[in-house]
From TrEMBL:
<feature type="transmembrane region" description="Helical">
    <location>
        <begin position="445"/>
        <end position="473"/>
    </location>
</feature>
<feature type="binding site">
    <location>
        <position position="538"/>
    </location>
    <ligand>
        <name>ATP</name>
    </ligand>
</feature>
<feature type="signal peptide">
    <location>
        <begin position="1"/>
        <end position="23"/>
    </location>
</feature>
<comment type="similarity">
    <text>Belongs to the protein kinase superfamily. Ser/Thr protein kinase family.</text>
</comment>
<dbReference type="InterPro" id="IPR008271">
    <property type="entry name" value="Ser/Thr_kinase_AS"/>
</dbReference>
<keyword id="KW-0723">Serine/threonine-protein kinase</keyword>
<protein>
    <recommendedName>
        <fullName>Receptor-like serine/threonine-protein kinase</fullName>
        <ecNumber>2.7.11.1</ecNumber>
    </recommendedName>
</protein>
<keyword id="KW-0430">Lectin</keyword>
<dbReference type="InterPro" id="IPR000719">
    <property type="entry name" value="Prot_kinase_dom"/>
</dbReference>
<dbReference type="GO" id="GO:0005524">
    <property type="term" value="F:ATP binding"/>
</dbReference>
<dbReference type="GO" id="GO:0030246">
    <property type="term" value="F:carbohydrate binding"/>
</dbReference>
<keyword id="KW-0808">Transferase</keyword>
<dbReference type="InterPro" id="IPR001480">
    <property type="entry name" value="Bulb-type_lectin_dom"/>
</dbReference>
<keyword id="KW-1133">Transmembrane helix</keyword>
<keyword id="KW-0067">ATP-binding</keyword>
<dbReference type="InterPro" id="IPR036426">
    <property type="entry name" value="Bulb-type_lectin_dom_sf"/>
</dbReference>
<dbReference type="Pfam" id="PF00069">
    <property type="entry name" value="Pkinase"/>
</dbReference>
């Protein structure tokens, strides 16, 4: 999709195009110079020392000739020569007297060589741009690493036609992997799945659709990555979030999961703004690779028999269904294998009574279907799959039954899929040889009976007494296990055992939802012989490892008490298991209510807006320990049986490991709802929740998502920008076309103005949540809001 750019913008873009290599400062590598692969780690540095060229040890005894960021502790390789062929200790890279630049192994065999367009090399140099060049005496570049990228682009680098990035195989294996990003000769910029280990491609999962016009991809010094035509006009943004190269190291990398991500790393503590010095994500494409990768063949975004979903931190997650385990723990995309013997296809031993189903909502493997049935019941679908030894999974959706066979392909989990997957697994109490076991058990009983009948009366009495003692002990043990749950001292919440919650959820069978750090299951617990439906959140990874630290955080969460917060009922911290038990919200999330069904009425949407605001205000103003939620979004606003809105997942930030709570910016939150200060040298305060609420309020007002790529008018894609344009131009009615209830409400304009105040880029301009409540209730007049990007007096 082409973008219209003003002449001024074009001038700025052209000014920021990559500088000529001849204008860069050099630290010459003279003819005859060489580096040897060993533990000494000798390198050729750029003038500033920010980049290094040399050998990196990847595995014991295995070295990669590479370029990397040299001033950050985390080894970050941006280019390599021999990614598919590591060399051993003693290997050398040398700039020969005749200008040849070659890598040879320890036996002197050539592994790699720079392809020179012409002779005359007089020196080499590692530049401060991260580009290694070979040049002649006139400083004309004859070869440069920028022309032969591996998986990474750097500021000032360009990607020309027929040049591609190939992802690494895994996070620690730098050899070529499963995805390709290429600017084709026809001008189309495309991401493909690769027919690994062959070089041909399978499926295009993202493209700019610029056939005949795309000429060059540019990564400029302001942090933009974009596609231009031959005349220099802008066609498409690949990464549209800017960052200063003077304050941040930057890179755009096609990662091993197939997503192209734009990362930044602060060059100083001042640039970090009090945050951790780490790589943070600024932008990425595609938005959800799990749903984009398809095709007739191939494993999908993850391996065979696995499924893919987008975590709350917007990172791709590959996981195995219940009853399956990952094939290679070091390769998350290796796929999954069943932990049980396959169903017997013998007509006389079909084993249908030895198998059952594990249900997964919103899950499918569309690349493995072989039989479809319409207008059937779910029970019928279960039975027809159970009777079919080839059926591994049945998909039931909209009264349709779809059979899936091994290997399961293109697995994905997403709310947009609907229906459920019925995953067939062997019951845990039977094996493929269960009939043999049963015969063995019967034989054992016969032997024991014979011994009893043939023994003395005294021995019989002794055995009988032992049996009675065992039954008494077993019943007592069972009774102890069924004792009322313990209560955390001083708090009205229960401490459950893991076995209790395993039973309450029927073996964690019915999944309600999942994220990067947790999976939520439906369960039933008894209280005074009354059964209560609950939601059990099973945390995958948490920051605290000790029982006392976990209990302290649970204690903080449990002390909250507000009608617009989801109530915590209990917890479990047994061994490595950390689970939280919440009240069950029968009407699901606001995201489902708002975006997936017919449009809810205006007054119900505004009730939800008020309820959400009250809940956030309580967390900020009324808790004994102030809580910043950090991830306000429709998925974290739940609705009970009367559609009362309640905020979930508050207070979890301290429980999560940093790698589990990172977002696309490397900080907490979800793309589209994250406040701008996460990217800047600014403190993080409760105002980040105010910003997220402003986006959510606009979504409630307009009954649409913050980002809609499929709209007819490009200016309407980003709701926040569209809303301010409508406000400025006096066309607010365009936000709620055909919604007469909204247009007839005198508060409509006021609510839009409040939302615009909330999404101001300068956090000091945003009102507090207490002031937001006053503005919404009408006790305070709403001033005229400025452009969200401006900086004027606060509300």
């Amino acid at each position: 999709m082409a973008f219209q750019v003003s002449n001024i913008m074009l001038f700025i873009l052209m000014f920021l195009l990559p500088l000529s290599a001849t204008a860069q400062p050099y630290r010459n590598v003279t003819l005859g110079s060489a580096l040897t692969a060993n533990n000494a780690k000798s390198t050729w540095l750029s003038p500033s020392g920010e980049f290094a060229f040399g050998f990196q040890q990847i595995i014991p005894g295995g070295y990669l000739l590479a370029i990397w960021f040299n001033k950050i502790p985390e080894t970050t390789i941006v280019w390599s020569a021999n990614r598919d062929n590591l060399v051993q200790e003693g290997s050398r890279v040398q700039l020969f007297a005749d200008g040849r630049f070659e890598l040879s192994d320890s036996r002197g065999q050539r592994i790699w060589a720079a392809t020179l367009s012409r002779v005359g090399v007089t020196y080499g140099a590692m530049l401060d741009t991260g580009n290694f060049v070979l040049a002649n005496s006139n400083s004309v570049v004859l070869w440069q690493s920028f022309d032969e990228p591996t998986d990474t682009l750097l500021p000032t680098q360009t990607l020309n036609q027929d040049v591609k990035l190939v992802s690494s195989f895994s996070k620690t294996n730098y050899s070529r992997g499963r995805f390709i990003f290429i600017l084709q000769n026809d001008g189309n910029l495309v991401s493909y799945t690769r027919n690994f280990p062959m070089d041909n491609v399978i499926f295009a999962y993202w493209s700019t659709q610029t056939m005949g016009t795309g000429f060059q991809v540019i990564f400029n010094q302001s942090g933009y990555v974009f596609l231009v035509a031959q005349n220099g006009s802008l066609l498409n943004y690949v990464a549209s979030n800017a960052a200063s190269s003077s304050q941040f190291y930057q890179r755009a990398i096609l990662e091993y999961d197939g997503v192209l991500r734009h990362y930044v790393y602060p060059k100083s503590v001042n640039s970090a703004g009090g945050r951790a010095m780490a790589w943070s994500i600024m932008d990425f494409i595609p938005s959800n690779i799990c749903l984009r990768v398809g095709g007739i063949t191939g494993p999908g975004a993850c391996g065979f028999n696995s499924f893919c979903y987008l975590g709350t931190d917007q990172m791709t997650v590959c996981d195995c269904p219940t009853g399956y385990s990952i094939i290679d723990p070091n390769d998350r995309m290796s796929g999954c294998k069943p932990n049980f013997a396959a169903q017997n296809c013998d007509e006389e031993a079909r084993e249908t009574d030895h198998f059952s189903f594990n249900d997964m909502l919103n899950t499918d493997w569309p690349g493995s279907d072989y039989e479809d049935f319409d207008q059937v019941t779910e029970d019928w679908c279960r039975q027809v799959c159970l009777n079919d030894c080839f059926c591994a999974v049945a998909i039931y959706r909209d009264s349709k039954c779809r059979k899936r066979r091994y290997p399961l392909s293109i697995g994905r989990v997403d709310d947009s899929i609907g229906g459920k997957a019925l995953i067939k697994i062997r019951n845990t109490n039977v094996t493929a040889n269960s009939s043999v076991s049963e015969k063995s058990s019967r034989s054992t009983l016969i032997i024991i009976g014979s011994v009893l009948l043939g023994s003395s009366t005294f021995l019989n009495l002794l055995l009988l007494s032992s049996l009675l003692l065992y039954v008494f002990y077993f019943n007592r043990l069972k009774s102890n296990r069924l004792q009322p749950y313990q209560v955390l001292p001083g708090l009205n919440i229960r401490r459950f055992s893991f076995k209790d919650l395993q039973g309450a959820t029927n073996g964690f069978k019915e999944e309600l939802g999942r994220g990067a750090y947790s999976t939520v299951y439906k369960g039933i617990v008894k209280n005074d012989n009354i059964e209560n439906v609950v939601a059990v959140k099973k945390l995958h990874k948490i920051a605290t490892e000790g029982e006392q630290e976990f209990q302290a955080e649970v204690s903080s969460i449990s002390r909250t008490n507000h009608k617009n917060l989801v109530q915590l009922l209990g917890y479990c911290d047994e061994g490595q298991n950390r689970l939280l038990v919440y009240e069950f919200m029968s009407n699901g999330s606001l995201a489902n209510f708002l975006f997936e069904n017919s449009r809810p009425n205006w007054y119900k949407r505004m009730q939800i807006a008020f309820a959400t605001a009250r809940g956030i205000c309580y967390l900020h103003e009324e808790c004994s320990n102030q809580i910043i939620h950090c991830d306000i979004k429709p998925q974290n606003v739940l609705l009970d049986e009367s559609f009362t809105a309640k905020i979930s997942d508050f207070g979890l930030a301290k429980l999560l490991k940093p790698d589990q709570s990172r977002t696309t910016t490397g900080i907490r939150g979800t793309k589209g709802y994250v406040a701008p200060e996460w990217f800047r040298n600014m403190p993080i305060t409760v105002k980040v929740d105010v910003y997220s609420f402003g986006i959510l309020l606009l979504e409630l007002i307009c009954c649409r998502r913050n980002y809609e790529p499929d709209v007819e008018v490009e200016t309407e894609m980003i709701l926040a920008d569209f809303a301010y344009d409508c406000y400025k131009e006096g066309t607010l009615h365009l936000l709620v076309a055909n919604d007469e209830e909204a247009l007839n409400d005198k508060r409509f304009d006021k609510f839009v103005m409040i939302a615009i105040w909330c999404i101001q880029e300068d956090p000091t301009l945003r009102p507090t949540m207490k002031r937001v409540m006053q503005l919404m209730e009408g006790s305070v007049e709403v001033p005229i809001p400025p452009d969200p990007a401006s900086y004027i007096t606060s509300v």
